[in-house]
Model the fold of this input.
Amino acid sequence: MEFPSEPFKIKVVERLQKTSREERDRLIREAGYNVFRIPAEKIYIDLLTDSGTSAMSDNQWAGLMLGDESYAGSRNFFHFEETVRSIFGFQYVIPTHQGRVAENLLFSVTVKKGDVVPNNIHFDTTRANVEYHGALALDQVIDKGLDPHEIHPFKGNMDLDKLERTIKEYGPERIPLVMLTITNNSGGGQPVSMENIRKTSELVHRYGIPLIFDACRFAENCYFIKEREPGYQNKSILEIARELFSYGDGCTMSAKKDGLVNIGGFLALNNRDWAEKVTNLLILVEGFPTYGGLAGRDLEAIARGLKEVLDEDYLAFRIGQVRYLGEMLKDAGVPILEPVGGHAVYLNAREFVPHIPQEQFPAQALTVALYREAGIRAVEIGSLMFAQKDPETGEVRYPKLELVRLAIPRRVYTTQHMIYVAESIAKIYQKRDEIKGLRIVYEAPYLRHFTAKLEEVD
Ligand code: F0G
Done:
């Protein structure tokens, strides 16, 4: 297996603080066993997210100086718009300050109470935004995508039979749009194949339903298509992206991922009516249509980032670095989700800490151990994030997977950092019996994992 070395060198560095085991023990207790509540300066390796944590290039930093901060008609907007159109191909480009605002704006004009929005797997903000509008968010990924041991090149694929059954069950008039998340973050950063995208597009369009991509990690998805799908080996990432988006009617995008920036996003659409309604709402809640909650310089950085992310040397290194971490963990016998996805390695908490029952948040317990033992911050993608109480029966529905995501920021950490992470987790695995379950002492009604407080169960 190939792990290409970094296709960049380092011009600016940022000091990292190391903390003692005792200090971390105190900090995690004070944080209510929730790593979102720990000051970032007290983290050694921060794998909480790959979102908004990228290192920008010298070219992007130079672009910031060319920011045109005019309220209306900034030149950076036109560069941004032209770049988005040239890659994604959609007609109307609406900037937002991050991805979830694009989701909120889109659903505000398309989704009404009682509607149904299928996706391969909704990301947490997408699900919350669908539900906030009174609609049902359904996950329809292939069954293999939910099995942490199944080796399949495109575990993010939509299950076309499930999707067609859903359309027939609820009726196309109750399904304002179907989404496809590329890559499928909540299912392990797994890609969707071009064939599956094409077939999903054919199916939904047959029923007159638009297809909208959640395009956060589109370039990583395109790299997997090039690597794994017959017929794409000799195509450029740009060509693959253009074909992929040609099957859809629009996308929501968090540029904080494959835009290689620290803030920004957009909604891109072909439907003029939707675009007009969204734009009117944008003015109310985000800003004028040529900046949408961003500074001119941010738009410039996104335009440059979107071009850089298509670079195959970058993508080969990026996907290779994440894969390398996964291989080291596998060699140490640590249970991970396979195959390794594009932006993160996912620890399989059910197998890592089998002594902790699901109602005691095994993945969160493991997240706490990674911080306490090694100063590594990861994120729980399990019961704390997804378990839901049935509003009628009060019964709790648990997610199938209990994962701890080690998301790798883009262009930020070196290979030596990855070795530190792998060795630390291997050590924790050796004494996994000592890890304790947790119970909630405070939770918010939506997206509770961000602010919840917990305590250890003895
Ligand atoms: N869709 C997906 C697939 C995402 O992964 C995210 C964010 C969003 C939408 C929302 O974008 O944060 O810019 O509002 N994911 C981050 C993560 C937070 O850590 O995976 P946003």
Summary: The first strand starts at residue 45 and ends at 46. The chain has two domains: 21-50+311-456, 58-308.
